Amino acid sequence: MVQKAKILLVDDRPENLLALEAILSALDQTLVRASSGEEALKALLTDDFAVILLDVQMPGMDGFETAAHIKRRERTRDIPIIFLTAINHGPHHTFRGYAAGAVDYISKPFDPWVLRAKVSVFVELYMKNCQLREQAALLRLQLEGGGKAAAEDTKEPAGLLAELSARLAAVEEQAEALSKQLDDDSADAAAVATAAHLERKLTGLRRALDALEPGTGSGTPSVPSQN
């Protein structure tokens, strides 16, 4: 069973949170509410999120300050942030949003279809990264225990290698399709860059897995970093 991604919705007005939930419910993911910047930071201490929808104008800690705290934490600094704002003070205000670490800056009222499409891209990228980490974990188990077991047993771990290769191939195919979709839709530069980074990690993992095949060389291949 595939685990659902979590999406953090941050807004001090309950009616806005309700509207966001109505728009994003079709994605069938887990929607988490936060009514303030402080509450959002608490949620980020324990849970992993695919994307954050962050209101700019909030009492106390506003969206810009909240984003600054998120980007300073190693655990959360890579989570995409989409700013939502009901005010528009021109290019300087928009630039401040991007400078704070946002991948997008959307003014209210916004098109629900556009917002849902943007969020879905980051959810899909998040799910692909989760699959990649699972494959890397299986590969590490093979590297740490498979070599020793093979030395004590004449039986080759071909079945495990084949399973790893098949799972990785499925992720590679989905990542390639996603990259093509981003190219076709002229998506945000941040989403394209994230997809390219995912493909590079997949390439490194494929090389490490191929090196485990009999007759491909000696030594223990390194597993690519997941950062």
Output the radius of gyration. Answer: 21 Å
Distance between the termini: 25 Å
Strand content: 5-15%
Structural class estimated from helices and strands: alpha/beta
Largest sheet: 5 strands, parallel
Order of helices and strands: EHEHEHEHEHHH
Give the low-confidence spans.
150-156, 217-223
Give the strand order, joined by hyphens, for the main sheet. Answer: 2-1-3-4-5
Tally of individual helices: 7
| Basic shape | elongated
What does this protein structure show overall?
Pfam families: Response_reg. The protein is α/β, with parallel strands linked by helices and 227 residues long. The protein contains seven helices and five strands, in the order E-H-E-H-E-H-E-H-E-H-H-H. Strands 2-1-3-4-5 form a five-stranded parallel sheet, with helices on both faces. It is elongated and about 60 Å long. The two termini are 25 Å apart. Mean pLDDT is 78; it is low at 150-156 and 217-223.
